[in-house]
Automatic annotation (TrEMBL):
Belongs to the PurK/PurT family. This is N5-carboxyaminoimidazole ribonucleotide synthase. It holds the Pfam family ATP-grasp. It is an enzyme of class 6 (ligase). Its EC number is 6.3.4.18. The gene is purK. Homodimer. GO terms for molecular function: 5-(carboxyamino)imidazole ribonucleotide synthase activity; ATP binding; metal ion binding; phosphoribosylaminoimidazole carboxylase activity. The keyword Protein biosynthesis does not apply.
Amino acid sequence: MVGGGQLARMTHQAAIALGQNLRVLANAPDDAAAQVTPNVVIGSHTDLEDLRRVAAGADALTFDHEHVPTELLEKLVAEGINVAPPPQALMHAQDKLHMRRRLEALGAAVPRYAEIQSIVELDAFAQRIAGPVVVKAVRGGYDGRGVRMARDPLHAREIAATFLADGVPVMAEEQVNLRRELSALVARSPFGQGAVWPVVETVQRDGICVLVIAPAPELPDETASAAQQLAMRVAAELGVVGVLAVELFETTDGALLVNELAMRPHNSGHWTMDGARTSQFEQHLRAVLDYPLGGTDAIVPVTVMANVLGAPQPPAMTLDERLHHLFARMPDARVHLYGKAERPGRKLGHINFLGDDVGKLRERAELAAHWMSHAQWRAGDDAERSDEKERRKMSDGWDPHD
Ligand SMILES: Nc1ncnc2c1ncn2[C@@H]1O[C@H](COP(=O)(O)OP(=O)(O)O)[C@@H](O)[C@H]1O
Ligand SMILES: [Mg+2]
């Protein structure tokens, strides 16, 4: 697996039970996955030699992020490496513009969008949609890095100008009036078998997923099946091998628009580790290795997952001590920590709660995650102001393992 982040760490966990041995290409020995598997290659996902080293002798090469240049992957394919998902599929998860165009061609509804190469083009787009605009970096973004909500046309210009000046390819789209966000998670094997989990609701704050509710509450059956069928069709048409997440917007008038695709285990599937018959990590391995896929039904009526994000100021109490207190108060919390150093906004772990009352589970999940982040038993009052977050986003380097 290319990438040594938490997704690789949890895939390794699943590999153990399958009697498989996951080799990981990590940037550093203290990456989340490198800490737990002895089979580590330290190197870069943009270096062909490093990719060759990690792929040598492996049954399949797969990914914990989508940032490996496809030219390098094409070379590996030519050398006989089984790259899963293959580069022709993966390119749709790497490039938001490419993805949008392909989804449109498949007949999927997407937000109105345009490629932006100049401020003149941005102005023309803003005029055409006559509403608020989102400006996005076409490549390299994740967790809302590379996504900016413009407050007004002038702000949109400013953002686009900053990106363009840095040589970052840009697209603009309409700001969709969201009722909520959903995710349809599926897996597809080379044999052609598909498996779909229940459609979930995802809650984002500042572009980062903070909460997932499985299944999405009060989603009409027809809408849920339409989302699942769409995701399976996208997986088949694009030739995806492994897990595919289709991020969806549910608009205020009940329509579904596709936001983006991820071809790997995804944050919206972390609930499956405890709440579904087969976890997304095991399923990704089964698909990549062409085993028959596992059952995807939920084993309880509701699972709520909350992400533990690094607080603006890491608390004095250690994470381990916080965990002691959490378990004392909430013995049913299913905790998954990634072994990462605490940094503001960084994904440090997640917690699943299983049961049947969405409201109560959500409250407990938020409380637990807030405690683990802040060492305070009080949910929902993150002290950091959003403009400070915005500034941090602009100034931080992007680390695909955050
Ligand atoms: N067109 C849009 N309208 C409204 N909200 C949006 C739009 N695009 C993105 N967002 C919000 O920003 C989040 C991150 O955007 P996304 O394109 O998924 O980027 P990333 O690659 O960082 O996940 C989305 O989950 C959603 O909350
Ligand atoms: Mg996204």
